[in-house]
Design brief:
Elements lengths: L9 E4 L5 E3 L6 H12 L2 E7 L5 H12 L3 E6 L2 E7 L11 E2 L4 H11 L5 E5 L10 H10 L2 E5 L3 E7 L8 E4 L4 H11 L5 E6 L6 H8 L4 E6 L2 E7 L8 E3 L4 H13 L4 E8 L6 H8 L3 E10 L2 E9 L8 E2 L11 H9 L2 E7 L11 H11 L3 E5 L2 E7 L9 E2 L5 H10 L7 E3 L12 H8 L2 E4 L3
Parallel strand pairs: 2-15, 3-14, 6-7, 10-11, 18-19, 22-23
Antiparallel strand pairs: 1-23, 1-24, 3-5, 4-5, 7-9, 8-9, 11-13, 12-13, 15-17, 16-17, 19-21, 20-21
The structure holds shikimate-3-phosphate (S3P).
The site of shikimate-3-phosphate has 10 residues, from helix 5.
Length: about 450
């Protein structure tokens, strides 16, 4: 878990061209779901390419606490021997999800319709995040929740002994909320219906179908209507986790802003619910090419080739694209600093309730680095200075947020003076090989204190 150990201050020095191949780790969203659904069917689910970041490891430990057998074979290969839908045992201890909002919210959904009582906690970041968005719809199944003020962790959930199916319109664009309701719906009789007005990442729907659940998706005037038949017999699967586009964002953006760079990031999933950043970068004039486009496991996949792009221009990012790049705004704002003109990011209120308030965390760091940022409750604008003109030379608080830390490490590769973060330890939650991988491309990242 992050945030419990000694902080790791890190500095990124301006560097020469980044070159080579960047094999980024497995997808975080898909890794959590593979462990949870593996635990919810009887038999062995074999997973390769699992992200072995702290967030996912915490979810693995939680599944073991609910009675599944979770075995690490090394090198990203894992087996989960599940207990079946409705088969979760009551954990003996508090479930600690560390830094992971996805972990805790999905697990709350998965246990909510079993007659067990579970207490959840996390690190200081996670314990500050809103859980009412998940416990409100879970209450409709009959689940009770008692937490701290504002619906914060630590929190105890009493699962519904006689769950009823639910029809729920998700009020915020959140794949975590949608997924929690669907996972709870697995152990409710009848049909659970979830409606989302804006499409968010659809890994839960795809994976539930893969595990044999009857789930349909309909595009209607009301939105995307997802209907799940409750109490299915899920069948164990073999899952090859694709590489994470949200992690690919860091070497891609680093190459785009660092003079002379040419980096290949192979095997990146381009599921339209996740690939908004790459579209945006291309609209800004980035030299980013999809090579070797193909389909794998029903998902579009490509090798991304990113090259230094000296003539970036600021754009207005369409709000309708926000959900498909919600985790990428921090690093996009770094790229925007090196563009000419204003990059306008609207409709991004959700950024304020991530591992940190990401608009606030980025705005503070960018301003300290000499970049002008305007912000409002659900928007922000970065005025770019153009390539070669970004001063840098600041130390930024990463606020227990991996993506804030990595964004500023990318920034320091192309600023005039180095960029530092007070604590790079949260990077291990999602991208444990970040320093090694970026160093291998030519980045100059140093731990300022051991
Ligand atoms: C995720 C959903 C998103 C995203 C998070 C992963 C998921 O959160 O920010 O990193 O795996 O479902 P929200 O559902 O809160 O938008």
């Amino acid at each position: 878990m992050s945030g419990h150990g000694t902080p790791i201050p890190m500095t990124s020095h301006p560097c020469g061209p980044l070159q080579g191949q960047a094999h980024v780790p497995g997808d975080k969203s898909i890794s959590h779901r593979a462990l949870i659904l593996g635990a919810m069917c009887v038999g062995d689910t074999h997973i390769t390419g699992l992200l072995e970041g702290e967030d996912v490891l915490d979810t693995g430990k939680a599944m073991a606490a609910f009675g599944a057998t979770v075995t690490n074979h090394g090198g990203g290969a894992w087996t989960v021997t599940g207990v079946g839908v409705g088969g979760f045992a009551e954990p003996e201890q508090v479930i600690d999800c560390g830094n992971s909002g996805t972990g805790v919210r999905l697990i709350m959904g998965a246990m909510a319709t079993s007659p067990i009582t579970v207490t959840f906690t996390g690190d200081a970041s996670l314990n500050g995040r809103p859980m009412g968005r998940v416990t409100d719809p879970l209450a409709l199944f009959g689940t009770r929740a008692v937490g701290r003020a504002g619906g914060r962790l630590p929190m105890t959930l009493v699962g519904a002994a006689d769950p009823v199916p639910v029809r729920y319109v998700v009020p915020v664009p959140s794949a975590q909320v949608k997924s929690a309701v669907l996972l709870a719906g697995l152990n409710a009789p009848g049909q659970t219906v979830v409606i989302e007005k804006e499409a968010t990442r659809d890994h839960t729907e795809r994976m539930l179908q893969g595990f044999g659940a009857t789930l349909t998706v309909e595009e209607t005037d009301e939105g995307r209507v997802i209907t799940l038949d409750g109490q299915p017999e899920l069948t164990p699967q073999t899952i090859v986790v694709p590489r994470d586009p949200s992690s690919a964002a860091f070497p891609v953006c680093a190459a785009i802003i660092t003079p002379g760079s040419d980096v290949l990031v192979p095997n990146i999933g381009l599921n339209p619910t996740r690939a908004g950043l790459f579209t945006t970068l291309r609209e800004m004039g980035a030299d980013l090419v999809y090579e070797n486009m193909r389909e794998e496991g029903g998902e579009p996949v490509a090798d991304l080739r990113a090259k230094f792009s000296p003539d970036l221009k600021g754009i207005a990012v369409p709000p309708a694209r926000a959900a498909s790049m919600i985790d990428e705004y921090p690093v996009l704002s770094v790229v925007a600093s090196f563009a000419q003109g204003v990059t306008d990011m609207q409709g991004v209120k959700e950024l304020r309730v991530k591992e940190s308030d990401r608009i606030d965390a980025m705005a503070k760091g960018l301003r300290a680095a000499g970049v002008s940022v305007d912000e409002g409750p659900d928007w922000w604008k970065v005025t770019g200075l153009g390539h070669g003109n970004v001063p840098g030379g600041a130390t930024v608080a990463s606020q227990l947020d991996h993506r804030i830390a990595m964004a500023f490490m990318v920034m320091g590769m192309a600023t005039q003076k180095p960029m530092s973060v007070d604590d790079g330890s949260p990077i291990a939650t999602s991208f444990p090989i970040f320093e090694e991988l970026m160093g291998g491309l030519g980045a100059q990242l140093v731990r300022t204190q051991e």
